[in-house]
Amino acid sequence: MLNHQYFKNRIFDLHHEEDFKALALKLFQYQALHNEVYKNYLQYLGCKVGSVSSLNEIPFLPINFFKSFKVQTGEFVPEVIYTSSGTGGQQSSRHLVREKKWYENSFLKAFRLQYGEPGDYCFLALLPSYLERKGSSLIDMAARLIELSGDKDSGFYLDNHDELIRKVEEKVKGAKKVFLLGVSFALLDLAEYHHDNWSNIILMETGGMKGRRKEMIRYEVHQELSSSFKLAHIHSEYGMTELMSQAYSKGEGLFECPPWMKVIIREVADPFTQASLGKTGGINIIDLANVDSCAFIETQDLGRLHADERFEVMGRFDHADIRGCNLMVI
What we know:
Elements: H1 4-8, H2 17-34, H3 36-45, E1 61-62, H4 65-68, E2 80-83, E3 94-97, H5 100-115, E4 121-126, H6 128-131, H7 137-149, E5 155-156, H8 161-173, E6 177-182, H9 184-193, E7 202-205, H10 218-229, E8 235-238, E9 247-249, E10 255-256, E11 261-266, E12 281-287, E13 296-305, E14 311-316
Parallel strand pairs: 1-13, 4-5, 4-6, 6-7, 7-8
Antiparallel strand pairs: 2-3, 8-9, 9-10, 11-12, 12-13, 13-14
């Protein structure tokens, strides 16, 4: 019998492309039946659910539906509701999460695939805008990584730059690996305040100026941070309130998905047509960890897919909301 636990028992054990496709199609059939918002959207489109036999035939739910509707598969009382920042007074998205532990499982498995055990790092978070509001999935993620790091100096550092700088330098001298995660405007503030050779640390930006600075493309942000801290590569996270999973870039703006997540690029002028490889278009995401909401999301981001399935984020559609992790507008 297909239920949410059936999928949760299988999602993190995917090893082959064919396994991903098979499970994704099963999840599509399941959510088309048990997610009222998605079901109604598919009916409006005239989609014949039973005839869908490949991933490129699956209609993706526009991400704005998370603002106006309860995008929920099955009946449950959410343990937590994550909300987007709603920068500039815009309406926030709401992601109803059945079990917080499921979100933790997803982000920890994705993190470990790319970076190993959190306990190997002193984990420092510079996320002032997110700490100023409730319902941030990024804060919960950072808090759990801080906890699992087991380092007494791991934590949120807000605007206390002197203390943050001192901790980084202490850890580097002591040969402890440092992982500094920050929203872009806060990292740029730090770069103006302090210049030093931090070439031995991992610095990851989550994007976004949150109205604190003028918007910049990612390349400009990375150039400024690289210059200030003498870093060869700036790491990035691509995630959002509406997703349980994250993709990571270790440099050059090329993101890699975990095995249960896939990016498909759609034509700009036709959201129901897949773009050819290497062409810039709208980013569609399959996140199988979105078992309890919708796993098939049409984002407002523009991107380009490479032959090795890594992808770039080029910007956002005109008039798209300015919000979320890793926002860099062109």
